[in-house]
């Protein structure tokens, strides 16, 4: 690897992390001058980083306008969840789970319950993502972990639009806790079996939201925060999804379904 490509990879890694943590949101324009100065790299190196991020589906170049954080499509959502359905159950079933990883999962899912009660949506989203990062790390494969890092960054782009529906993240807090409860009881097969229906429900909700939401606004100016988009239909979206009952709207599962 050349010095140039190494610098570009480091810049891409940093920008990928900022996207993954919700600091750069869909539609944000990535101005070359400002971003190159902030990252202390040349514009040529930044363009190479953009190329790497473009291969991940995280940014898109619009002719005569610049480079923007990508806005996920329906096909992106389907591809993301197909990949996650292949990797995460296998990691749970056959991966190496260390005491430290199990402690991280336990603490993260417990914190998510507290954040849900406090209405701290962004923190709840952060720890939910940490759960899936930790599950991916159980594979012990550098290549798979890097693939999941890129995938989870794309997930965060998709989830950004769900900020309009606070119940979106809260309804999956119990799913994550249920998975971890099974792992704490060394019931891997049961934990792995929870993932496909969980992901199918999340995918269905995201696709429905994308179909019902308003047309995307114009791309944002350089690294500006995304405005909240008002849509009175969003409040009724969750209850309109087939297969999602009232207990999922509240973010809770019925009594007796938490333990394995």
From TrEMBL:
Q: Which PROSITE patterns match?
A: HTH_GNTR (PS50949)
Q: Name one GO molecular function term.
A: DNA binding
Q: Which Gene3D superfamilies match?
A: GntR ligand-binding domain-like, Winged helix-like DNA-binding domain superfamily/Winged helix DNA-binding domain
Signal peptide residues are none
Q: Which domain of life is it from?
A: Bacteria
Q: Residue limits of the HTH gntR-type domain?
A: 5-72
Any idea which UniProt keywords this protein has? DNA-binding, Transcription, Transcription regulation
Q: What is this protein called?
A: GntR family transcriptional regulator
Q: What broad taxonomic lineage does this protein's source fall under?
A: Bacteria, Bacillati, Actinomycetota, Actinomycetes, Micrococcales
